[in-house]
Structures are given as structure tokens and as C-alpha cells.
Design brief:
Shape: globular
Number of helices: 23
Helix content: 55-70%
Structural class: mainly alpha
Radius of gyration: 23 Å
Order of helices and strands: HHHHHHHHHHHHHHHHHHHEEHHHH
Length: about 500
């Protein structure tokens, strides 16, 4: 029992550091609110900052004697636990804004932001303050890189950092030291932030927005696009801009954002061939082509667009948004359910579940695993029809040639199975509350893959139980289940020890 309590204190100590780190981030929306003379919003963030700091400092003080080496279990527990704590604490400014029907709704939007899902329960989005809008997009931007990654960028000498890094669904080191890797990830993101915001600001001015409005929208849309997060500053999402230029720039940003950070680093350091040799990019473009063919067949069958150009513009944008798990829309949610038909919806569901690359801002079960499972399938087919001597060792390319072994295949299949089981459970819950199966599959694929596209189910009036289920699914899907399993195992172990003691 003592070891259980000691582990709990270690987890709380390092979670406190992450909570305090996110509290300091509140300075950005606070300053934004002050600049725009949004005094109520400024007070909300000041109160929220104090609450987060009090909680963080109390945990740190009470657990300061447990600054011990972080083991694998601790790293996983810290990641999963800190995300849940932040979901509650960072919902305070949302709740105080008066734009949410309940604290659960506010917590839903925080988890949606952190997991880069992009589904929202906020009310009257078009009239929220600039401070709150800044906070919304900061949450999804930081969530894309990872709160733990952000904290690791500033903590020096933290042993066990790699365990926390892996706990957020990232497992590739760009550099030998994980803190340097975390800083490299943020460095890459900030460089793209400057370029992407500038491009979107210019596009905004071209379509008639004021320079200040163009800059703010450009900054926020970039944050959401790069993080494949789907939040937008207006209720009409990207449809608000009615601009092909804005859409094209957005596609470029969120496709790049869905690629592995290690791939970015390889390209930056001169290895440009990696982009067409890597198993993830090959898998991504292959599955995009396949799902787009299915989508096009469905749209042609339903004959809803007057010409091929409009069909391509609407269909391709939605599909790429789904496949990169971004969640931006240039349609109204009800148009997909009423106009697109079952085949097109199926293509979107497949794209949302597959998602982007491992160690990126994207969700889904990842192109890496699809590629590995496909290569394993082809290898098994070869073994059936070819002589044993004619079969060479199967390899795949991921920043070098890697042997495809049974353990790699098992791990890939296990995570994919976890996503499918979670998706199935989510669909069962959603249909239980009376939603049609087709709509339920679409919405739950979006939740499980951390996408953010909605077919109309996610709204403030949905059952509270379903909101809670979706929060847990977003959390589990983003952390790729390992941190979740660690928490469940830890809780079960603790209960068992208490039971045995009694």
C-alpha cells in the first residue's frame, strides 16, 4: 500500500509542474483581453490563473519529498492524469464566460481542444470575446504538440522524460535527448506558425477582411490547421471565408501538420528523399486516393453538385480534412447527412479512423500502422504461394530500412484493434440514445480519431452521459490507450491492495 501512495505522490508532483505550466499560458489570453478592453474576460482569466496555480502549488508542496526517478509506469500515469486535471482546471475561463450551458460542456470543449478534436458545445461562438477565442486556439495548438512536450521543453534534468513523451502518443526521438526533441518539435511549430499566419493574413486581406481581423483569424486558423484541431473563430467554420485561396492555404498547412515531426526534421536537415520513401507518406497518399475514389463514386451516384469542379472542391476538402483529422468544414453539417449518401459517408468514416502520421499533431490509428499491417498481409500471402528460399526478409522504410518483425506487427494490430473496439462502443452508446446508425458511425469516428467533423449529433442539447463518453473516447484515442491502460491498471492494483488489507 505504501508503494501505491508513493507512486501517487510522484505522479501528483510532476502533474503539478504541468498544471503550473498551463496556468502561465493563461497570460496570453489575459493580455489579449486587456488589449481589447474585455475587462470581464480579463478577470475570468485572472481568477482561473489563481485557481490553477493554487492547485498546482498545493500538489507540489504536499508531494515535494517525492521528486524521485520517473519509471515507465509513472510517465504513463502522469500523462493521462495531467490531461484529466487540465481538462477541469482549464475549463474555468470557459465556464466563467457564460457561453456554456454547464461545466461539463466547458470541460468537453477543453478536452476537444487538447486532443485536437475540434467538436464544440460552445454557444453563440460568433459573439465570444477575443480573449476566449485566443484561449480556444491556444489549447488546440498546445494540445497538438502536447502539454507534456511543452513542459519537457523547460524542465531540465528530468529523468523519465521519455516515458511521459511516449505517454502522449509520441515515440520518435528527433534528437538523442528527449528534452532537445521536445524543443525541436516546438521550434518546427513556431517557424511554421510565422509562415502560415503570414500567408493566411495576406489571404484574409485579399478577400476583404480588415488587417487586424485578418491577422487574428490567420493566427487562430493556423493554430487549428497545424494542430489538425478544427477549431475556427466563426460558427460557419472555414465556410465563413468563401475563398478558394483560404481553403488551399489551409489544406497545405494541415497536410503538413499531419506529417511526422521526424519527417519535418529530416527534410530540414537535407534528407528530402524521405518524403516519398517513408512508409507513412506512401500510406497516407495511397489511402487518400482510395478513399477519395470511394467518396467520388458516392457523390456521382447522388448527383448533388452541378459540375466536377465544385464536386472536387467540396469533396476533396472534406476528405483531406477528415484524413488529416483536422475537422475544418466548407459545408454545413446537415448537408453531409442529407445530401452525400451512405457511400460518401463510409469513405469519410474510413479516412477519419485512419488519420495522419505517428508522432504528429494528427489523430486516428495512423498511416504507419496501416502500412505495417498491409506489408505483413502481403508477406503472409507470399509465404503461401512462393518457395521459402525465394522469400526475402520484409522491410519498411521509416528514416532508414527497418526489419518487419512479428512484435512490430502485433503492436500495430493491437492499437488498431483498440481504436475499432472503442469506435464500436461509442457507436453503441450513441445509437442507444436514439441516433441513427449511419450518423452515429460518422460522429464516433470523428470523436475516436480526434477529427472534429460533425454530422449534427454533437451539440449542447445532447445527453450528458453521451458528452462524458465522448470526453473519455477523445482522451483515450489521443493518448493511444497506453496511458489509459496504465491508469486503469494502477487503480485496480490500488483497490486490490485495499481489499486485501481489509
Amino acid at each position: 500500500m505504501n508503494s501505491f501512495i508513493e507512486d501517487f505522490k510522484i505522479v501528483n508532483y510532476y502533474s503539478a509542474k504541468i498544471i503550473e505550466g498551463m496556468a502561465y499560458v493563461m497570460a496570453i489570453p489575459f493580455i489579449t483581453a486587456i488589449f481589447y478592453k474585455e475587462w470581464n474576460t480579463a478577470v475570468d482569466f485572472a481568477l482561473s490563473f489563481m485557481i490553477s496555480m493554487i492547485v498546482g502549488l498545493m500538489l507540489e508542496i504536499f508531494c515535494k519529498d517525492h521528486k524521485k526517478d520517473v519509471r515507465w509506469l509513472h510517465g504513463m500515469l502522469i500523462t493521462g492524469y495531467a490531461w484529466l486535471m487540465l481538462t477541469v482546471l482549464d475549463a474555468v475561463p470557459y465556464w466563467l464566460s457564460g457561453h456554456y450551458g454547464s461545466f461539463l460542456d466547458a470541460s468537453f470543449d477543453v478536452m476537444s481542444g487538447f486532443t485536437t478534436t475540434g467538436l464544440v458545445l460552445i454557444q453563440d461562438l460568433d459573439h465570444i470575446s477575443n480573449g476566449i477565442n485566443m484561449w480556444r486556439h491556444l489549447l488546440t495548438f498546445i494540445g497538438g504538440q502536447g502539454m507534456v512536450v511543452m513542459t519537457l521543453s523547460f524542465l531540465v534534468g528530468l529523468k523519465g522524460a521519455y516515458m511521459m513523451y511516449v505517454g502522449e502518443g509520441k515515440d520518435e526521438k528527433l534528437l538523442p535527448n528527449v528534452k532537445h526533441t521536445a524543443r525541436a518539435i516546438w521550434g518546427i511549430s513556431i517557424v511554421y506558425l510565422i509562415i502560415g499566419t503570414l500567408a493566411l493574413t495576406i489571404a484574409g486581406i485579399i478577400i476583404g477582411l480588415s488587417p487586424i481581423r485578418s491577422f487574428l483569424d490567420g493566427l487562430w486558423v493556423y493554430m487549428a490547421a497545424w494542430s489538425t484541431g478544427g477549431f475556427a473563430p466563426h460558427s460557419q467554420n472555414i465556410l465563413y471565408y468563401h475563398s478558394m485561396l483560404y481553403e488551399v492555404i489551409g489544406i497545405i498547412i494541415f497536410v503538413i501538420g499531419s506529417f511526422n515531426f521526424a519527417l519535418h526534421y529530416s527534410i530540414w536537415t537535407g534528407n528530402k528523399k524521405e518524403i516519398y520513401k517513408n512508409i507513412e507518406t506512401v500510406s497516407f497518399f495511397t489511402t487518400v486516393m482510395i478513399t477519395f475514389i470511394i467518396l467520388t463514386a458516392g457523390l456521382i451516384k447522388n448527383n448533388i453538385y452541378p459540375n466536377a469542379v465544385i464536386m472536387f472542391r467540396k469533396g476533396f476538402y472534406q476528405l483531406i480534412s477528415a484524413h488529416t483529422t483536422t475537422g475544418f468544414m466548407t459545408l454545413y453539417a446537415n448537408q453531409i447527412s442529407t445530401d452525400w449518401g451512405t457511400l460518401a459517408i463510409l469513405a469519410m468514416v474510413i479516412a477519419m479512423l485512419i488519420g495522419g502520421s505517428a508522432c504528429s499533431t494528427a489523430g486516428g490509428f495512423k498511416g504507419m500502422r496501416v502500412g505495417i499491417i498491409f506489408k505483413s498481409f502481403i508477406y503472409e500471402i507470399k509465404k503461401l504461394f512462393m518457395p521459402e528460399k525465394a522469400i526475402s526478409v520484409e522491410k519498411y522504410h521509416n528514416h532508414g530500412e527497418i526489419r518487419l518483425d512479428d512484435e512490430t506487427v502485433r503492436k500495430a494490430m493491437f492499437i488498431v484493434l483498440c481504436y475499432i473496439v472503442t469506435f464500436t462502443i461509442g457507436v453503441l452508446f450513441t445509437t442507444y440514445f436514439g441516433y441513427p446508425l449511419e450518423k452515429a458511425a460518422y460522429e464516433v469516428a470523428s470523436v475516436t480519431g480526434n477529427v472534429g467533423l460533425s454530422i449534427g449529433i454533437t451539440q449542447p442539447s445532447m445527453p450528458n452521459t453521451l458528452k462524458a463518453v465522448y470526453i473519455l473516447i477523445m482522451w483515450a484515442g489521443r493518448l493511444e490507450f497506453m496511458a489509459v491502460f496504465a491508469i486503469l491498471g494502477y487503480v485496480v492494483s490500488g483497490v486490490r491492495k485495499i481489499w486485501q488489507k481489509d
